[in-house]
TrEMBL record:
It holds the Pfam family adh_short_C2. SUPFAM superfamilies: NAD(P)-binding Rossmann-fold domains. Belongs to the short-chain dehydrogenases/reductases (SDR) family. It comes from the Bacteria. This is SDR family oxidoreductase. InterPro entries: NAD(P)-bd_dom_sf (IPR036291), SDR (IPR050259), SDR_fam (IPR002347).
Length: 259
């Protein structure tokens, strides 16, 4: 399926590995030129080389912390007029809300709410003037089914989701859509690190711990990041302009509800 994106330009945040990388790779296969981002310059450079070799598109790596004003400025300098923006940033640590102080909350809000808002603010008017724009916010399945130990993430990501619910209704008339992609368990380094800690605590092997997690999902497995990347690319497609202000769960059907 040709998504009509050849020659478009995209900023994909936090994209040296995991779900961000999968989104960047899927867009590159559609002919989208990329600016990709991560804090680790070495890992980011390797990813840029791999995507470019696999697809032939232009890939510009920008090593920066996207949760800072300086990091966002560096991204926008590299691509001041993107057609596509994929917002992504690592989630805050789990814990007990009783242990979090104001600084913990501000850090979570900066990373998982305000970073996305400020990048949208920087690019959305240009997208509307050019009559094309696709913004995808990678959040979490916890937006729809909050997880108690992820209170920092629940609050910050829900804030971004609420903001988008309002602004998306104003941008879509200009062929600019804003949607959320809500991942469940995917086979990423982040998930494996979490599972490794759980395996050690339970005194079982990593393989057994992964199998237990897979068994709890209706699909009987965890997700392949490439599946997530393809979902992102579809939302960015030329013919996806009537999908707007939505939050698409990509979780194997684990959300325990109908809406």
């Amino acid at each position: 399926m040709d998504l009509g994106l050849k020659g478009r330009k995209a900023i994909v945040c936090a994209s040296s590995k995991g779900l961000g990388r999968a989104c960047a790779m899927a867009l590159a296969h559609e002919g989208v030129d990329l600016v990709i981002n991560a804090r680790s310059a070495d890992t980011l450079s390797r990813t840029a080389d791999e995507i470019q070799a696999a697809t032939g598109v232009s890939v510009t790596p920008v090593a920066a912390d996207v949760t800072t004003e300086e990091g966002r400025a560096a991204l926008l300098e590299a691509c001041p007029s993107p057609d596509i923006l994929v917002n992504n940033a690592g989630g805050p640590p789990p814990g007990d809300f009783r242990d979090w102080d104001r600084d913990d909350w501000i850090k979570a809000l900066d990373a998982n709410m305000l970073t996305g808002i400020f990048l949208i603010k920087a690019v959305v008017d240009g997208m509307m003037e050019r009559r094309f724009g696709r913004i995808v916010n990678i959040t979490s399945s916890a937006v729809k089914a909050p997880i108690a130990v992820l209170g920092l993430s629940n609050g910050a990501r829900a804030g971004l989701t609420g903001f988008v619910a309002g602004i998306a209704r104003e941008t879509v008339r200009h062929n600019v859509t804003i949607n959320g992609l809500l991942p469940g368990p995917f086979d990423t380094d982040r998930l494996r690190n979490t599972i490794a800690a759980r395996a050690e605590k339970d005194g079982i092997t990593m393989d057994d711990a992964m199998a237990r997690m897979a068994e709890t999902n209706p699909a009987g497995r965890v997700g392949d990041p490439d599946e997530f990347g393809q979902a992102c690319a579809f939302l960015c497609g030329d013919k996806s302009g009537f999908i707007n202000g939505q939050n698409l769960l990509v979780d194997g059907g684990s959300f325990p509800g109908t809406l």
